[in-house]
């Protein structure tokens, strides 16, 4: 049995291309995903959504950035224990993301070769702080 079997990921990002790339990476390892492209209406969009095993959260979005979304997620008992992974093109945010309480950090573009290993670590509770080389 694979560590990825029956896992669900939530992708919160305003960029359609980034969502597609992340969903392709997740599909490759057979992880089901749900995308939310509008963090501004997050509370409404999360109603009825199953609690995911991991959340990938872009840091820079219009109206509601990743830090405020993280704060919202940490305040909701359904998501309190779910690892939230910051993923952004702005790798200079790595320390800010760590200080804000993100579980892990993946810089864009996400390395497809390292993604399965990094995701396995994250799902096992091991933080990953990865920037593109």
Describe this structure in a few short sentences.
By secondary structure, this protein is α/β, with parallel strands linked by helices.
Please characterize this protein's 3D structure.
It is a single chain. With 133 residues, the protein is α/β, with parallel strands linked by helices. It has one domain: Rossmann fold, CATH 3.40.50.2300. The protein is 33% helix and 19% strand. It has five helices and six strands. The chain has helices at 16-28, 42-46, 66-75, 94-100, 115-123; strands at 8-12, 32-36, 54-57, 84-88, 104-107, 129-130. The chain has a six-stranded parallel beta sheet with strand order 2-1-3-4-5-6, with helices on both faces. The mean pLDDT is 93.
Helix and strand topology:
Layout: E1 8-12, H1 16-28, E2 32-36, H2 42-46, E3 54-57, H3 66-75, E4 84-88, H4 94-100, E5 104-107, H5 115-123, E6 129-130
Parallel strand pairs: 1-2, 1-3, 3-4, 4-5, 5-6
Which short descriptors sum up this protein?
alpha/beta; 133 residues; Rossmann fold; 6-stranded parallel β-sheet; 6 strands
Report the radius of gyration as a whole number of Å. Answer: 13 Å
Distance between the termini: 32 Å
CATH fold category name: Rossmann fold
The CATH architecture can be given as 3-Layer(aba) Sandwich
Structural class of the secondary structure composition? Answer: alpha/beta
Strand order of the largest sheet: 2-1-3-4-5-6
Helices and strands, in order, run as EHEHEHEHEHE
Q: What is the number of beta strands?
A: 6
Name the shape in a single word. globular
Largest sheet properties: 6 strands, parallel
CATH class: Alpha Beta
* Discrete helix count: 5
* Number of structural units classed as domains: 1
């Amino acid at each position: 049995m694979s560590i990825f079997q029956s896992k669900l990921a939530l992708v919160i990002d305003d960029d359609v291309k980034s969502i597609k790339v992340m969903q392709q990476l997740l599909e490759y390892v057979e992880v089901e995903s749900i995308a939310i492209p509008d963090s501004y209406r997050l509370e409404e969009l999360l109603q009825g959504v199953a609690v995911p095993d991991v959340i990938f959260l872009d840091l820079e979005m219009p109206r509601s950035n990743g830090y405020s979304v993280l704060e919202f997620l940490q305040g909701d008992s359904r998501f309190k224990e779910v690892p939230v992974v910051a993923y952004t093109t702005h790798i200079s945010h790595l320390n800010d993301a760590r200080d804000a309480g993100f579980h892990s950090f993946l810089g864009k573009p996400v390395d497809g070769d390292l993604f399965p290993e990094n995701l396995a670590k994250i799902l096992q509770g091991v933080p990953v702080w990865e920037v593109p080389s």
